[in-house]
Amino acid sequence: MKKLLYLLITICLVTSCNKSNFLKESPSGTFVESNFYGQGGASEAQAAVDAIYNGLYSIYDRSMLLLNDLPTDDEKNGIGMGNQFLQDLEYLKYSSQNSIIQGMWADNYSAIGRANNAIKNIGVMSIDTALKSRLIGEASFLRALFYFNLVRYYGDVPLILSLKTVQDAYIPRVPKEQVYAQIIKDLQFAEDNLPISYNNKNIGRATSGAAIILLGKVYLTRHDFQKSADELAKVVENEGKYGYSLFNDFGDNWKLATENGKEMVFSVQYSSPPGHTNIKMRAAAARYSVSGGNVPGIIGAFESDIPTMDLYSNYIDQDTRKNVTFKLEYLSPKNGKIYKSSIPLFGKFWQEGLASTPDCSINTPVFRYADALLMYAEALNEIDKTSKATDILNRIRERAFHDTQHNYFGLTQSEFRDKVYFERRLEFAFEGMRWFDLVRTNRLLDIMKAHGTLEAQMAGTSIKSSITTNAKEYQSLYPIPQVEIDLNKLLTQNPGY
Question: What is the pLDDT of residues 156-196, one digit of tens each?
Fold first, then answer.
């Protein structure tokens, strides 16, 4: 089975429907928390966890790109993008009223609510013990992922692990160290209770390898390089056990036949209509940059998310990642002709031969094995194992260039640091990692000030220079959404907003 179709079930969770407790009737045809788990067995427990996976779509459909690539030196708005909230992200003048920032907060907490209910209720269900542990492991992994998103975006956040009433959600932010402690606890449980792999029917579910790699990223984000290296070594030094490796062809990560292969650690699974489709192809597809304004036979193109020329110029022609990451030519399914774009556009989520861009079913990687390798190399370098780190880094280079002529040799620790940051940019462009990487490595302010200056020079206008003047140190965190502060008077705003 090509895709795992996550089941969206209508469950009235206390995080959104607790006011219904005022109604004493509980119709047998309606699922509420009390009767859903109370009546159910293994299939209901599975459905509850599937509903958590469903929360990935709203987070990773496009929002992750808009918050992680658009306010960086990798991406900008295309012609005709009139959404002021997106313009504000590109020009670093966003506020607590920004709808994308609000949505990211709400979507992660909504998914956390589902995870909390699944963990609490599946734990007391009379189902197979091994299945129970696995399902709670999946829910714990997902809860950790959602809290990891929140703590990186907003810093201190409310730590909600269970709710009895709606009022229980109105709590203050807690120090991020407490949030990280819970993330680590959840991932350690997931690592111990998830399988290494699944059969084809369950491809896409969280595995023990995914939990290890995510935990390695958590430690790396916290600059605990020894723990990060130790955790990632469990997988990288035992590839055969976990079945991970790099594709020889970088592009295989975005081909329907291979996307769930050996490089996939954890990804959001998309499908053809009427299932959940991937809108990234629509956002990136050529509309204004080809002669005539559209590629004949291809509908639904927005050309709203486009790369900066700075990003494009960093790839040399011998780098095979270049022709996968970017797209300059489009084959018309209507007349068979090639149409050329006047500017490079993103190409990772391009499904060749598809006439309707909104119908794209290519998966969105959350973690690829390349990420594990680059994180492991970075952590090794920071604990004075630069030689071994260089060997790991060169695996990425050799895959990119299909030779050893472009490998790195004799790097100092400082030189290596620059190279691994550079390789992460080239490897993960348009995958929603750039902002996290710049913040994690304390480079966001300097990079964005330089980016604004460069954009102004390239555009020949001073408008883009406002990016430089708007860039501020406090933007290493996003603002707490004002709508949340209005609802929860115990919340405080991040400095600068």
Answer: 999 999 988 888 889 999 999 999 999 999 999 999 999 99
321-332 pLDDT per residue, tens = 999 999 999 999
**Two tokens at 350?**
């391009």
Report the Cα–Cα distance between both ends of the chain, in Å, rounded: 48
Which amino acid does the sequence have at 113?
A: G
Closest by CA to 468, choosing from 493, 489, 494, 447, is 447
CA 373 centroid distance within chain: 17
Give the closest residue to 269 by CA, choosing from 340, 179, 214, 198. 198
Q: Which residue from 91, 154, 147, 65 is spatially nearest to 481, judged by alpha carbons?
A: 154
> What's the whole-number mean pLDDT along residues 189-210?
96
**How many CB atoms neighbour CB 387 within 10 A?**
12
- Enumerate residues 6+ apart whose C-beta is below 8 A from 19: 166
CA-wise closest residue to 49 among 197, 248, 194, 262: 194
Q: Would you give the distance in Å from CA 351 to the centre of its chain?
A: 20
